[in-house]
Amino acid sequence: MSAGVPMQGTDRQGEREHDLVVFGATGFVGRLLAAELAEQAPAHLRIALAGRDEARLQDVRASLPGAARQWPVVVADSRDQAALDRLARSTRVVVTTVGPYARHGFGLAGACAEAGTHYADLTGEVLYVRRLVDELQQTAERTGARLVTACGFDSVPSDLGVLVLHQRARADGAGDLCDTTLLVRRLRGGISGGTVDSMRLMVAEAASDGAARKVVLDPYALSPDRAAEPHLGRQRDVGGVMRDAQTGQWTAPFVMASFNTRIVRRSNALTGHAYGRRFRYRELMACGRGRAGQLRAAAVSAGVGALVVGMANPLTRPLLGLVLPSPGEGPSEEVRRRGCFRMELRTTTASGRRYLAVVAAQADPGYAATAVMLAESALCLVEDEPRLPARAGVLTPATAFGDVLVGRLRKRDFTLTVEEEPAERHTPAARHSA
């Protein structure tokens, strides 16, 4: 069966004990997610908290407001497959924050695929998603399970930003999307130990395994049919310092680009290349104009390069552990409160028209905003199923949720807008690296 085909109508959920289970509720992001759901989920939903430590689960539950203090707790360890199988059969939807997913995620995803249980995660790991596609796609299609990856800052803003660009261009009859660039214009927030651990594991595997490295470096690594992808020359998702001719901004690599770009390309492929067969996509960090912007771009580029090299080298990897946060750690409430992000996506269509999309939120991107995005993704699966695109398998946020998640996030004060850029502002855009 081909990836992303419509569901075959198999319903293996029936009447289950829970509507939604939060797996990893005692972790840093898991606690934020539980608090979000306690505030936002409808009262009729049967929500449970799951993890490996019952006492810590009870502590999390006790910290929640109102009726959430009565939510049941479910003890399950990511290393206990029998427990994961029982968990998946007990609920309609599982949302998991337990990473690195390459180490802790596959057993639960596999259990959900087999049980026909919908699944959402926060992964930013190309190798993990590739494994899900290779090993669970057909099972999930057969059972009707939606396995939705990257439902946080990786990669909801990127994926939905391109989706709304496509929808506007299509509505205007402007043709397919061609060169499309996401510029990170503002980014303020902290980093957690779980994110660092995921990056460290993936970089180390790619550095030591030639096959894994080939997947990580492939711009179409997550395509359902690699041979069917267009030949657009070399696409460098993480480039060096350059000046964007359209905006005048000096740009540097965006550390999440190597994952986000592949999710966006998978969305295009799963929809029959609806964005276009000449769709080229990249992500960059805007660093400002003039000499100051150039220097800042050089500093950011050097920092990203040093981080990747340090994680890849077994000699320096332990040293990074001394200065970077450990799993379970994260930014303070004050840092999360002051956080924000703004991303601008510009595209040129096949007819030459240009559009600008803005995706932004006044919240820490990796934590406060991510908790909202993941909570709303889970609520899409449990509350909005009849309105979702009729697809099963390993899906992206855009292909699983579409406009439903766009609407939910707008109601949560996220900015998701599109406008056509006036003709007088049309200037030649910087070319994609090729």
TrEMBL record:
GO terms for cellular component: plasma membrane. InterPro entries: NAD(P)-bd_dom_sf (IPR036291), Saccharopine_DH-like_oxidrdct (IPR051276), Sacchrp_dh_NADP-bd (IPR005097). It holds the Pfam family Sacchrp_dh_NADP. It comes from the Bacteria. Residues 21-143 form the Saccharopine dehydrogenase NADP binding domain. GO terms for biological process: glycolipid biosynthetic process. This is Uncharacterized conserved protein. The lineage of its organism: Bacteria, Bacillati, Actinomycetota, Actinomycetes, Micrococcales.
